[in-house]
Amino acid sequence: MKKIIIGLCVLGVAGYNSVASAGKKHNNRLDKHLRSIIMQNNLTGNPLLNRTVPDINSPQAQLGKDLFFSKSLGGDFDSACVACHHPSLGGGDNLSLPIGVEADDPDLLAVGRSNDLALNNPEGGPPVPRNAPTTFNVVAWDQFQFHDGRVESLAKTPGVNGADGSGIRTPDSALGVADPLAGNNLVQAQARFPVTSNEEMKGFDHTAYTNQTIRELLAGRLGGYGNEADALGADRLAIWLEKFQTALDRPDGTAEEIITEQNVSMVIAEYERSQAFVNTPWKKYIEGHKHAISTNAKRGAILFYSTKAVGGADCASCHQGDFFTDESFHNMAMPQIGPGKGDGIDGSKDFGRARETGLDADKFAFRTPSLINVEVTGPWSHAGAYTSLTAVVKHHLNPAQAIESYDASLLAQGDIRNLDKMTENTTEALDAESFFAQGEAPVLLNDMQVGFIVEFLQALTDPCTQDRACLSPWIPEVDEQNIDQLNARNREGDLL
Description:
Elements: H1 2-40, H2 59-68, E1 144-145, E2 151-153, E3 168-169, H3 186-191, H4 198-202, H5 211-223, H6 234-247, H7 255-258, H8 261-273, H9 281-286, H10 295-305, E4 329-330, H11 354-357, E5 366-367, H12 389-397, H13 399-404, H14 422-430, H15 433-436, H16 447-458, H17 468-471
Antiparallel strand pairs: 1-2, 2-3, 4-5
């Protein structure tokens, strides 16, 4: 009996070794294929090479953090930058469409935040028409900010406001014309605009103010000068002045000298630009750690980079390079939900990039998002139509079919305005010149292959983005020095 048992054990071990050997050979083939793809695409795994990333512990980034969490920059004191962009929520808000001003509970973030009873939102549902883009890795963008690229680098050095007549174009200047007040970089230029939106931060008690005058009003509010000089009280004004003096190394600077709208946006940009999270398993794999990603993720990577002609998904035709974006605009016929941007006969559509260029060829086209940390930066699409990465991938493979079978339960919240018009509005995107120009023929992949691609996308997540302790430098503690910050919490009372 012992001999028989030993014989069976030997056969079992031999069989296991055979399977293990076959698995090792398969992995070696995958690694060899991927190494070829990595070399062909000149990938390093690090989208921040040759970039200067601010230190979150620098005085300017620290002041920017305080301002980012402060409702004092909300026109009606009920919204802050962090209301739509919290580090523990992937640099976003986990909502399909953001809720900025007039929230029923201004301190409540993520799912559960509502403004159904808002005086200026009589139809119900979120009034902000586009999904909140993540602030993570904004330092890596060279050409555009916002879904429609309305903040755009015109400079010879991308992302930098130059003195040679190029610089940065913003909504405050005509297409192709630099805004002289854009600031030092694309992120500062972008940071100047949420406070100008009635729905995001400005509110409806300051509608008479222009973009520039509302910025100046808010700077004066923090500094204790101008039309709202007494809005904060002496104690809070003293705190802000000391913070600006420290951050700008101007110990004798007066409030009017140093608490300016340019300095406010500059330090907020330093805080946002410090949110650099790129230490992903994919980066480690490229650097030579073969076991950094799973076998299925490797299969997904090959599908991601392979063309349709050889059975791949050709994702890299748009999601290029180490930052996984071509920084261009494409019409993927993503579901058009929410109030829209006022386009179309009834104003319920969003024409995307065409709103800036005026070109029919740009209708319904939106900026290609980066895929770094995509796992934690949903919901996805310009209107947050998907809360499932699997559903997003399937949409890209066959947009027409995805629209036909769209499931509204994929939304992060149910009170979305104009949801009954989604199919009609999105069908127009499917029929648009910009959609056919891309030759978007369906890609035939099975559910297992889609799963491989999703597993690869999950390998693009920096673990820090899912670790509250790791994120703590970017989240201020509640103390006397931050007496007006947004008390960020979610339905359960705690974020990540």
